[in-house]
Structure to design on (585 residues):
């Protein structure tokens, strides 16, 4: 008994000491963060925006930085960036903006909204200078609105046109003796092509060519407007390979000059009217956010809900759209009398058909109670369009990827793989011919295939009906623009899938107008998990591990890993999903 008491007391003491140490650790970090002085914006400050940073729909907090240096590093969200540029326009201490334009990690629709915010900033009379050692086309897509665009004398300026590539896995599956049993509705529904063919079908080649040229034409049109070069010349410069060096870009007036970093800073000093030996007051947009605070308005509330990532059944994770938490978010916004309107920001290529239907249902119920507006980001297609179509109005950028109204399902037959590669065989009994339908260890029977295809076509019919009801069109017309076909926002407005061009700010203004609000405050959802939750492992997100893997294997190979993970997810049930992720080069 005495031995037991000694062990118990020792264990209890250890737990108490451990809890005290954790408390002191957390208190020390919190104290360091709270005591850290906010950034002070001096007179004649230049705001710097690094386009190589990806501005996500929600702020990205680097909690590891807290442990390392008692400093919480945070990259503002995309919408925060828009608001900060707007704030800088009227901030008497901000004299101009320096765009660091080497690469652009943001999608074309997001870039378009950033570009429009910068154009509005220019109306203040303040300057914008863009500079890059090597400037890609995506970086130039934003940078070309600057008063002056410079590239390093020995740098590279990219001007070759756009391309997009898909990865096909049929050869790999053949070697592994895995037979994908594929079902789909919609001849353009190309998400299953990587499994059944080794190159693009003619339907997919057609739709990809159309939407890629839409985005490219918009890029050339915007360049033409700012650089005063006709689009025909811009096409020819890309197709002929005339731009090999930054000097070539100067010759053809795509950029203003070649300069080294110190020369660019010298020009900024002249614009600021300061001595050439003085130090320029530069502030990153990240630090500017801490200086100006969080001004999200006052008065009645508009609920801004970010729907980002794959649409999945159940709870999901912080980086995707789980049906359960999003239904709950929409339901709370519907019941909350202080919330006068809802804006759903959609950035998703879709996912589970059932999850999409369940979220659509809650959107439709919310619409009966208060205005519901959708703002489409870079991608709002397939399931992403499904959850959008119940809204009162849909806003999209001309470069948004949307549509893809179709359904597919994959049931892999792994019997040959198990037998010939692993030496594993299966046998069993069942009470009827359909008792083990959909199993992965044998080929499907003809009866099973017919039942599964019927199920896919029923979901497709429901999808089309949701679109017809939401867009006030008959299903016969919807069939002509459905079939799984992908549309840009430009074409989507023409065929009636979206209501107007515009970014998130315009969608919010439309929601306020429909709710008849003269002033309003924005409440953003879902909330990000706290430092303590991440420290104690209470959240399910493995963002830090994902970033580590991405750093180790590189962004392109990381995309391949993500696509392989999606193959696994596709076997879980019928999908309303885009083709595999594509990267525009």
């Amino acid at each position: 008994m005495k031995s037991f008491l000694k062990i118990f007391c020792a264990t209890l003491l250890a737990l108490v000491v451990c809890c005290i140490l954790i408390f002191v650790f957390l208190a020390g970090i919190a104290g360091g963060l709270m005591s850290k002085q906010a950034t002070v914006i001096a007179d004649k400050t230049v705001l710097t925006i690094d386009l190589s940073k990806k501005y996500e729909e929600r702020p990205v907090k680097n909690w590891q930085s807290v442990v390392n240096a008692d400093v919480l590093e945070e990259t503002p969200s995309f919408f925060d960036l828009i608001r900060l540029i707007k704030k800088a326009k009227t901030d008497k201490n901000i004299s101009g903006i320096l765009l660091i334009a080497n690469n652009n990690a943001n999608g074309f629709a997001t870039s378009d909204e950033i570009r429009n915010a910068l154009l509005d900033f220019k109306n203040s009379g303040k300057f914008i200078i863009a500079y890059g050692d090597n400037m890609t086309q995506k970086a130039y897509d934003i940078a070309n609105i600057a008063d002056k665009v410079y590239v390093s004398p020995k740098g590279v300026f990219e001007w070759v046109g756009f391309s997009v590539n898909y990865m096909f896995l049929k050869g790999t599956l053949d070697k592994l003796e895995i037979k994908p049993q594929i079902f789909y509705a919609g001849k353009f529904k190309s998400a299953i092509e990587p499994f059944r063919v080794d190159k693009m079908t003619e339907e997919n080649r057609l739709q990809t060519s159309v939407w890629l040229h839409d985005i490219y034409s918009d890029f050339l049109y915007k360049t033409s407007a700012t650089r005063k070069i006709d689009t025909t010349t811009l096409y020819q410069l890309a197709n002929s390979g005339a731009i090999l060096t930054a000097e070539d870009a100067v010759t053809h007036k795509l950029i203003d000059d070649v300069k080294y970093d110190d020369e660019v800073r010298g020009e900024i000093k002249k614009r600021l009217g300061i001595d050439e030996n003085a130090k320029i007051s530069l502030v990153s947009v990240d630090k500017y956010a801490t200086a100006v605070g969080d001004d999200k308005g006052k008065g009645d509330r508009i609920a801004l809900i970010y729907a980002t990532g794959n649409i999945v059944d159940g709870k999901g994770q912080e980086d995707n759209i789980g049906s359960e938490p999003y239904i709950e978010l929409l339901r709370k916004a519907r019941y909350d009398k202080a919330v006068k309107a809802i804006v759903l920001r959609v950035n998703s290529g879709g996912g589970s058909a059932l999850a999409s239907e369940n979220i659509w249902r809650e959107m439709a119920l919310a619409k009966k109670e208060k205005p519901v507006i959708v703002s489409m980001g870079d991608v709002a297609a397939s399931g992403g369009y499904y959850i959008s179509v119940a809204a009162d109005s849909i806003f999209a950028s001309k470069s948004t990827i949307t549509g893809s109204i179709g359904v597919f399902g994959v049931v892999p037959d792994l019997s040959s793989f198990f037998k010939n590669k692993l030496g594993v065989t299966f046998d069993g009994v069942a009470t009827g011919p359909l008792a083990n339908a959909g199993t992965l260890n044998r080929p499907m029977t003809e009866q099973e295939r017919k039942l599964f295809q019927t199920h896919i076509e029923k979901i497709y019919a429901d999808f089309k009906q949701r679109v017809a009801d939401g867009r006030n069109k008959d299903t016969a017309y919807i069939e002509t623009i459905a079939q799984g076909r992908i549309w840009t926002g430009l074409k989507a407005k023409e065929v009636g899938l979206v209501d107007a061009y515009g970014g998130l700010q315009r969608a919010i203004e439309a929601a306020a107008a429909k709710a008849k609000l003269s002033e309003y405050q924005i409440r953003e959802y879902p909330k990000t998990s706290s430092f303590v939750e991440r420290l104690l492992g209470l959240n399910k997100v493995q963002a830090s591990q994902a970033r580590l893997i991405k750093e180790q294997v590189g962004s392109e190979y990381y995309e391949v890993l993500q696509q392989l993970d999606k193959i696994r997810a596709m076997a879980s049930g019928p999908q309303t999903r885009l083709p595999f992720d594509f990267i525009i080069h």
User: Anything to note?
Assistant: Confidence is low (pLDDT under 50) at residues 29-36, 62-72, 531-544.
